[in-house]
Fold this sequence. Notes:
Blueprint: H1 2-16, H2 34-66, H3 75-89, H4 98-106, H5 111-130, H6 138-152, H7 163-177, H8 180-191, H9 197-214, H10 219-226, H11 239-242, H12 245-248, E1 250-251, E2 256-257, H13 262-267, H14 273-277, E3 279-283, E4 289-294, H15 295-303, H16 331-341, E5 345-349, E6 356-361, H17 362-380
Parallel strand pairs: 2-3
Antiparallel strand pairs: 1-6, 3-4, 5-6
Helix pairs in contact: 2-5, 2-6, 2-7, 2-9, 3-5, 4-6, 5-6, 6-7, 7-8, 7-9, 8-9
Amino acid sequence: MIDLTRAVAAVLRRYILGTGPLFPVPFHPLVIEPTALLGCVLVGVLAGALSALLSNSIYAVEDAFSHLKLHWMWWPAIGGVAVGIGGLIFPQALGVGYDTIGQLLQGSVTTKVILGILLVKWFIWAVSLGSGTSGGVLAPLLMMGGALGGIEAMFLPNEGAGFWPLISMAAVLGSTMGAPLTAVIFAFELTHDANVLLPLLIATMAAYTLTVLTLKRSILTEKIARRGYHLSREYAVDPLELLYVREVMQPGVHTLLEMETIREVLSSPQLIDWHVQRLLPVVDEQGGLVGLVTSGDLYEWQKHDGNAIGGRALRDVIRAKSVDASPDEPLRAAVHRMAENGITRMPVLEAGTRRVLGIVSLDDVLKARSRHLEEERRKERVLGFGSLSLN
């Protein structure tokens, strides 16, 4: 359905808006100097810093409103007053700002306008969203990113009109939304200038790297986390899919031979193992699994005088039907099999021979998950840049 909607929009656009770019820009040189490429890195770092400050400012305003001794229904009204004051000071900061974005990309705005866009738009946007007033994210980020690029164009190498505003707005968008590649493609779609793809990629990745190091979450997922839903990463693979059974199983487990009698098992000096292992595989002479004996079975035999049935061989009383795992399968598949069968441990068998290699238990899975969580916590540690860290 989403793809169908996009296709319809793409078809209708050419008849309503034409086939040209939404924001036409003079095409920039395909090859830029190394100093300009280093400038893209600087633009990315500054864009990442602005992105972190923007994200923190919104939630700082939200926290400030939560401390007001007023009912929350008044918050949007207060936010509206702040937006109105900002509009009186600098009218260009109001609205979606497409005209202003176009002017920034043409390099036809004054320093006063650039500073007004950056500071006033930032203020009214943070207060608007922080107070609960309806507001967007995309166009304001493009405006503020373009304004930052306009300031940078004053001291960076001249690569054509609107070059640095375009690079900066894509870097701010990608780092704030947590989607650098999407920002690169989005900037290309807006301008149709393929010559800036490399500078866009350099700047957006530099900006995204900085925000990853300084922010735990993006501006989009911070609110979800504040509502009590933990997100270690916005898009993550199931950690159990990354671990294999062989990495967590207990190797070298104690096994029983199928021809052993119950009396021999109960009198074995190794019987103490079942208190720890709790699942004893029964194997044939070649070591292949033929069934299972549980600690519950041993307890019942002891409780009801195992000597009465002591002469019976294990192959006659074992649980022949078993659920097993392969050492090379993802832990996620093994856990699902445990859940489906209502068990907490199962033998790990070698493919083909069914030789017992070990046992995997729910405790092993939990230990592996704990290790993975600790690794995630280490990855999520942010740099101590003071106000740049979202809490």
